[in-house]
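Record 1 of the preview.
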Amino acid sequence: MILAVMMMICPSWGETLRVISLYPGHSDNIYAMGGSEILVALSENDDDDLLPGLPRISLRSGAERILALRPDVVITRPFAERINPNMYDVLRRSGVNVISLDPPEWDSFPEYLHTLANALNLNPDEAISRLDSIRGEISREAMNANHPRVFLEATSRELHTCPPGSWAARLIELAGGVNIAGDAVPLRPGSAIAPYGVERVLRNAASLDVYIIQNGAMNTATLKDFHAREWSGALRHVKVYEIPERYMSRPSLLGLEKGGRELLRIFKEAGR
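->
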């Protein structure tokens, strides 16, 4: 959903558009569309290996920190705006075009890429082609692979998982996995996580093949933490893996490719 009035941004003649991205998913997609030259700063949550020479901005920074970089556009997401609304108010009053986009859902990803590209004077065609190519390649490889029954631990607290239709659930499906939490109900409409609980996992233990720990800001649990849990012995026959959160739950071209490839590797290994 677009929460800001958007228009084609035209820099001064001979000058390159100056863009600050304050959400890693947007940064990944701008980069994937060939927009690295227009980025002048990223959020502190962006991956360290993505344009490492650029400044990193805290979501709680003051507007002065951003204005000092002379951006034409700051692109963010509604969640970040709610964290620091005063900063965005100051940016708008200072003439900076603030674009606030929700992370895209699986089926609306092409539309999102068009919106993002049009707002930043980028060409979406190559990105759409790449999206189709990545999904097609992963899907074709999955056809000849095993189809393990999978549980994804989104957060260890109350053992949340990914509900059907979420980015992570669709990625597991694309790579050939079967999500055992097909009956999970999102915390709220549109949420990417759903409470599941240990008891429901254990009820499916006999038929479970792969347990994936999504590790990142939402879930700091590791393989070591998993094996220290009292109930982990009931899953001793299950292959347990740890995957970076950005591979599983970040709606981006880079995340899609890395996450899909990692799942294909895991499912192949688990089937041996």
